[in-house]
Design a protein that fits this description.
With about 120 residues, the chain is α+β, with helices and mostly antiparallel strands. It contains 4 helices and 6 strands. The protein has one domain: Alpha-Beta Complex (Aspartate Aminotransferase, domain 1). A 6-stranded antiparallel β-sheet has the order 1-2-3-4-6-5, covered by helices on one side. The model has no long low-confidence stretch (mean pLDDT about 95).
């Protein structure tokens, strides 16, 4: 889904108060703790997280899941151990209603992505 907003606060306020908001806020909190220097803004009509080199992550509430865009997941987690059991595409991790974020390793995945980015490793598609 796309939201015609200009700030992260407007984005959050535009969401329905349901499970998607809860999951999005949980992932958002992890991003802020693992990448405190990243700037949160709106890019491509969703939440975007940028460093001095540009956009690194995006986060969006869809109809049936919350999507977390990271570039190429295999570059961050080649063995798939950190994303095991989570629905994903090449660059999108999908958190469905039944996904318990606290029982995943998404915090470790985000931390690894941030570390790789700091080392200059290309994690994009």
């Amino acid at each position: 889904m796309q939201y015609n907003v200009t700030t992260p606060t407007e984005y959050i306020n535009a969401l329905e108060n349901d499970w998607r908001l809860e999951k999005l806020q949980a992932i958002r909190k992890i991003i802020k703790s693992k990448a405190p220097d990243y700037i949160e803004g709106i890019q491509y009509k969703m939440l975007g997280y940028s460093d001095d080199k540009g956009l690194v992550f995006s986060l969006n509430a869809q109809k049936d899941y919350v999507s977390f865009y990271v570039g190429d997941t295999k570059k961050v987690d080649p063995s798939g151990e950190l994303l095991m059991g989570i629905n994903q595409g090449k660059g999108c991790i999908r958190f469905k209603k039944s996904t318990n974020i606290h029982h995943t390793h998404i915090d470790e995945f985000i931390e690894r992505a941030v570390d790789l980015r700091k080392q200059g490793v290309d994690i994009g598609c």
